[in-house]
């Protein structure tokens, strides 16, 4: 009986590729491709979790008149609004400068197109936001807008 430390127990020298394959297990190219794809996927998820953002948004209707930007947002969503939050529409980004103190009731006197764009119904309560001056080239009108109320990095869920 041979022992593991016995040199006579060592495999004989391989003299051909076939004999070498018997001595050493070789991974197939498919296995390497699957491993590479898995590593790339993991690196992508890690990169997104560090550099990506998850935004919580509130729908709004932005009104541009004479270069001034104002927006209407549902009163129920205005609790998350603070000064400096981001208002986004028509490729531009604006900061909320003020939030109206008193809510406004959506009734017959409310402009119909603002109700449509903002998704407001009769009887809803909205607040008026001021977002300063419009970017150059922004035409007067009513725009569908979003207000980013919260923005977090996905990795913060793991670290908290």
Fraction of residues in β-strands: 25-35%
Order of helices and strands: HHEEEEEEHEEH
Continuous helix count: 4
According to CATH, what is the topology of the largest domain? Elongation Factor Tu (Ef-tu), domain 3
Describe the structure.
The structure is a single chain. This protein is an alpha+beta fold. The protein has 2 domains: 7-51, no CATH class; 54-158, Elongation Factor Tu (Ef-tu), domain 3, CATH 2.40.30. The protein has 4 helices and 8 strands; from the N terminus they run ααββββββαββα. Strands 1, 2, 3, 4, 5, 6, 7 and 8 form an 8-stranded antiparallel β-sheet that branches. A hairpin with a 2-residue loop joins strand 3 and strand 4.
Which properties best describe this structure?
rod-shaped; alpha+beta; 2 domains; 4 helices; 8 strands; 160 residues; Elongation Factor Tu (Ef-tu), domain 3; eight-stranded antiparallel beta sheet; single chain
Compact summary:
The protein is an alpha+beta fold. It contains four helices and eight strands. It is rod-shaped and about 95 Å long.
């Amino acid at each position: 009986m041979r022992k593991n430390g016995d040199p006579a127990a060592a495999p004989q020298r391989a003299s051909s590729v076939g004999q070498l394959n018997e001595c050493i297990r070789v991974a197939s190219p498919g296995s390497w491709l699957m491993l590479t794809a898995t590593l790339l996927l993991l690196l992508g998820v890690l990169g997104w979790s560090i550099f990506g953002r998850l935004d919580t948004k509130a729908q709004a209707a932005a009104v541009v008149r004479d270069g001034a930007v104002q927006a209407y947002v549902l009163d129920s969503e205005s609790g998350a609004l603070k000064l400096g939050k981001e208002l986004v529409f028509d490729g531009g980004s604006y900061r909320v400068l003020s939030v109206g103190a008193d809510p406004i009731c959506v009734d017959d006197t409310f402009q119909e197109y603002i109700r449509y764009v903002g998704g407001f119904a009769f009887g809803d309560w909205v607040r008026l936001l001021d977002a300063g001056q419009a970017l150059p080239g922004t035409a007067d009108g009513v725009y569908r807008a979003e207000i980013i109320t919260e923005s977090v990095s996905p990795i913060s869920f793991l670290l908290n």
